[in-house]
Amino acid sequence: VTGASALARERFSIPNDVIYLDGNSLGALPKVTPERLRALMREEWRSDLIASWTKHDWIDLPMTVAARLAPMVGAKPEELLIADSTSVSLFKLLGAAVRARPNRPVILTQRGNFPTDLYVVHGLADLLGLEVRTVAANEILSAIDERVAVVTLTHVDYKSAVVHDMAAINAAARAVGAFTCWDLSHSTGALQLDLNREGCDLAVGCGYKYLNGGPGAPAFIFVAERLQDELRPPLQGWMGHADPFAFEDQFLPGGGIRRFLTGTPSILAIAALECGIATFDGIAMAQIEARSRVLSQAFVERVEARCGDRVRLASPRDPAKRASHVCFAHQGGYAVMQALIERKVIGDFRAPDLMRFGFAPLYNDETEAIRAADTLGDILDSGEWDEPRFHERGKVT
Ligand SMILES: Cc1ncc(COP(=O)(O)O)c(C=O)c1O
């Protein structure tokens, strides 16, 4: 794939003078989102009030919006659900997995996994008296044994962008009767995924990064069809009941993916997420993945040419081995990033020393990648990043 232009910049509302390289943390605003939310409030909530649950199919929105996501991740529409946050969804799936493997005491995960994943794993293990086995990335395969109930990993490392070999890990887990549960937060909307072909059991992912669903957008849950009747989520709520409006005292799990719902879906938030997912309409994930590598590679080469050994690439040099973001390490990384942001090149900082730059081919282009690298070079040349104001830490980095 060649050519300098973004694949669908016109679908977004981004300030003209900003180079936004943080779609991996909070995707940009789709142009249609404000109008869709206004219409939903005016024409549905205001006019039809509670009848909207049926009249406008609000009740099925977690499934219908998930169905639009299905082709982007290689899942069947009935294997996905929009619900909760990534953290809560992970708790629900891991809880369901360990419940289905009562004689297996171990949850296997990776050192340096995204913190919320580690916290959820430890919280669940403490609650149920299970053991957490935490190993380095290259020790995962050898750590999978018959004591493991579930292996949970983030597919794309949130710092380095290293991509796990999903198929190999799924196969190793399957061979000993363990489940896999993937966190796809940095993969969805960035890489071409094929969850069924790769043999995934369970997965969760984030709605507000590459999917452009807006701040705090709901997450998604994937449960392979072959497992849906076997698994029971630990957070049993009325929306997951087979017949919520029968108001029965006993929980009877709903059929298929529906049983993984818990409470009332957040309709405004799911509608915004649907607008975000629609920004991918008509564009193949293979094309997005290829473009993202072109962009990140252009950036890496220009940064290295311009900045030399003042920064260190903290992502794989081989573009095929990384996803859609790259990290560069610099001792003053936080302050350098603040100086970049002041010059309207927006990335983020991950402690202790990483400057992270995400490339969203729907709205980023090569000119931006080059200009961002040059701005980084200018800031290092001038030393302006070392001014005290750039060292003041914000609540969000
Ligand atoms: C890998 C990964 N998992 C989970 C989350 C966040 O989960 P939540 O939707 O619960 O905030 C993030 C946020 O950056 C993440 O990078």
Verbal overview:
The chain has 397 residues and is an alpha/beta fold. Helix content is 35%, strand content 15%. The chain contains 11 helices and 15 strands. It has a 7-stranded mixed beta sheet, sandwiched between helices. It has a 4-stranded antiparallel beta sheet with strand order 11-12-15-14. The protein has a two-stranded antiparallel sheet with strand order 1-3. Strand 7, helix 7 and strand 8 form a beta-alpha-beta unit. The relative contact order is 0.16. The model has no long low-confidence stretch (mean pLDDT 97). The protein binds pyridoxal-5'-phosphate.
What is the overall number of helices? 11
Summarize the main sheet: 7 strands, mixed
Low-confidence stretches: none
The share of residues in helices is 25-40%
* Overall 3D form: globular
Order of H and E elements: EEEHHHEHEHEHEHEEEHHEEHEEEH
The quaternary state of the protein chains shown equals: single chain
| Percentage of β-strand residues | 5-15%
Report the end-to-end length measured between terminal Cα atoms. 33 Å
Q: Which ligands, by name, code or SMILES, are bound?
A: pyridoxal-5'-phosphate
> Could you say which structural class the secondary elements and strand pairing correspond to?
alpha/beta
Number of strands: 15
Q: If you average the pLDDT, what whole number results?
A: 97
Return Rg in Å: 22 Å
Strand order of the largest sheet: 4-10-9-8-7-5-6
